């Protein structure tokens, strides 16, 4: 049975929703782990690297932390899959370069791209909201196994430009930015606490519950549930799809 939504915009979570957590953790995380050391030493003067290093020092309360200590903290956060802003910013730098070089190709579940193309062709506006940085999102959608998907996507939001994913205020900020009423915006995520926050902001929600993903056992917390994007229909009729 399909979920049917009448909406003007769909906002997409990435990890666990459009794409496999296993790919992120087994391919992307080791790729960044291998490069943090040289990034923090050889490129310490770059403003984005300096800013992230300062943020790490502030978060751990160690104003004098040197590059090896910062690398150690980043690696511990990677082990926990902690969505810390400076970790995501540094990953964004490393991954963007990896995608541009052809070292990395983004994974999307096979049901995702056909659904995105279908919804986009109907005039549904597609946006992304992920803990991955905007730079990482741009590289991810620009270098998928199915080609460059960026033409399908209108806007990219992360915890820096929108706020934490479990806070309703972040979804309110995205609504203001995209200019679509909350009740006409559908959020797709694997994580019930994110869906709760979106619903509290007045958004439509659907939990994407894929076998093997970390939140599968938890369920969708009472949000409408789909096993894949093939089970979700979105159209902009103004009268229900
Ligand atoms: C292109 S972002 C890579 C995945 C990632 O690092 C991440 O934190 C995704 O988290 P999400 O909010 O999409 O579940
Ligand atoms: Mg997710």
TrEMBL record:
The gene is mtnC. InterPro entries: Enolase-ppase_E1, HAD-like_sf, HAD-SF_hydro_IA, HAD_sf. It comes from Streptomyces nondiastaticus. Its EC number is 3.1.3.77. Binds 1 Mg(2+) ion per subunit. It comes from the Bacteria. This is Enolase-phosphatase E1. Belongs to the HAD-like hydrolase superfamily. MasA/MtnC family. Signal peptide: none annotated. Monomer. It is an enzyme of class 3 (hydrolase). Its cofactor is Mg(2+). It catalyses: 5-methylsulfanyl-2,3-dioxopentyl phosphate + H2O = 1,2-dihydroxy-5-(methylsulfanyl)pent-1-en-3-one + phosphate.
């Amino acid at each position: 049975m399909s979920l049917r939504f009448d909406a003007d915009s769909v906002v997409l979570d990435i990890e666990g929703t459009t794409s496999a957590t296993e790919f992120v953790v087994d391919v992307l995380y080791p790729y960044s782990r291998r490069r943090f050391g040289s990034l923090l030493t050889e490129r310490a003067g770059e403003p984005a690297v300096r800013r992230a290093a300062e943020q790490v020092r502030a978060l751990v309360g160690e104003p004098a932390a040197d590059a090896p200590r910062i690398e150690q903290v980043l690696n511990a956060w990677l082990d926990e899959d902690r969505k810390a802003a400076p970790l995501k910013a540094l990953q964004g730098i490393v991954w963007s370069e990896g995608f541009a070089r052809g070292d990395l190709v983004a994974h999307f579940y096979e049901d995702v791209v056909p659904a995105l193309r279908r919804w986009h062709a109907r005039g549904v506006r597609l946006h992304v909201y992920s803990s991955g940085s905007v730079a990482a999102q741009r590289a991810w959608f620009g270098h998928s196994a199915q080609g460059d998907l960026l033409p399908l996507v209108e806007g990219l939001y992360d915890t820096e430009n929108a706020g934490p994913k479990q806070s309703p205020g972040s979804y309110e900020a995205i609504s203001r930015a995209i200019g679509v009423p909350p009740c006409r915006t559908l959020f797709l995520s694997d994580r019930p606490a994110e869906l709760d926050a979106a619903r509290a902001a007045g958004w439509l929600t659907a939990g994407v519950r894929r076998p093997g993903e970390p939140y599968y056992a938890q369920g969708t917390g009472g949000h409408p549930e789909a096993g894949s994007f093939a089970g979700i229909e979105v159209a902009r009729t103004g009268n229900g799809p």
